[in-house]
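Deliverable D5.2: sample structural annotation.
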Amino acid sequence: MAFESLSEKLGNVFRKLKSRGKLTEADVKSVMREIRLALLAADVNYGVAKDFTAKVGERALGADVLESLTPAQQVIKIVNEELTTLMGEKNDRIKFASKGPTVVMLCGLQGAGKTTHCTKLALFFKNMGKRPLLVACDIYRPAAILQLQVMGEKAGIPVFTMPQGTPPPEIAKAALAHAKEHGNDMVFLDTAGRLHIDEALMAELQEIKRVAEPHEILLTIDAMTGQDAVNVAKSFDEQLQIDGTILTKTDGDTRGGAALSVKYVTGKPIKFMGTGEKIGDLEPFHPERMASRILGMGDVLTLIEKAEKAFDEKKAAELEEKFRENRFDFNDFLDSLDQMKNMGPMEDLVKMIPGMNLPKNADLRVDEKQIARTEALILSMTTKERENPDLINPSRKRRIAAGAGMKVEDVNRLLNSFTQMKQMMKKFGGGHKNPARRKKRRK
């Protein structure tokens, strides 16, 4: 995931800082040098890294830090604030049209993920109650239109196309008329890219902009391109006056320097970030949350939002009731595992818990295969066994283990863990031993 290497390096710097107690001016300068090296190693633009450490260093040399009883914490606080400022301070949202469909134009180099993220973005707003329309304006890349159609069908979003050879500006113009006629309140233009920036590409994009008059022009930037992303963003902004960027493929690179550089160089915010390969793997970019994650402080708000999206409200209420009444069984456990998987890779979720992505826990790995093995064991049980695990005797254990391709010891381990979990739920969930809580709920 993006920023892992930076997070680890900054963690090492801050641990050294904490061990020094009082700080001198020489200590601060040494720390700033290490932070600058950490940023450069994360592929942050040199000018950005230099200016960032200059600002942090200037604030860190103030009396309130050097004379503080906890100078290390003060420096970390300053770094957190400056990181947040560097990435934009707050989440910038899409500007909606006051009348007619809101037009969002996506642009970027070939391979940056425009088509994929055009669909992800449309799905994001569909889930918010909008009626989006995807428009295939990339007539050059082989199978680009087909890719958009396949993804649109998967997301349940209509795709507007025109006969082969129709110029992209004409496609965009016709798509707007189609959207007005069919009640689509958002239009997403998937434009063509090139392997490099050239005059022909920019001329076509400028013509699409003139015809479609987009309310938002978003540049897709591959997080893995590092410092090159700065030059790309600068060029597109100069030619098109972009409104923001979408950082793609943040799950595939541990550096993430592009995110720390683009906003600084262009002045345009990162509005969204792609977090995985699934069609729903798109998040609004929150600078303050990302800064917190980089510094190992976790990201509880994003974790809660993921849970709210993944967990069915009705099922969650039913599970809560079963927790309190100690009626939780293996069927419920299986449902919980399914909904947890919808939240994304377990490793990424663990890192959102404050402190869990610190280097001292860097070796922590959540074994996704173990979850699959647990599911296999539960699915090998009969309906009655899942509802009443007390029925599972030695012969049933052997059958369950054989059905899952595992050992009896694995069945015993699962049963023991489940029993402990139920005991803990009974203790903290109330069960029948907490009449005060039940009376409170009846009120």
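Annotation notes: Residues 56 and 79 are 6 Å apart (CA to CA). Confidence is low (pLDDT under 50) at residues 353-364, 430-443.
The annotation will be released with the project's public dataset once the embargo ends.
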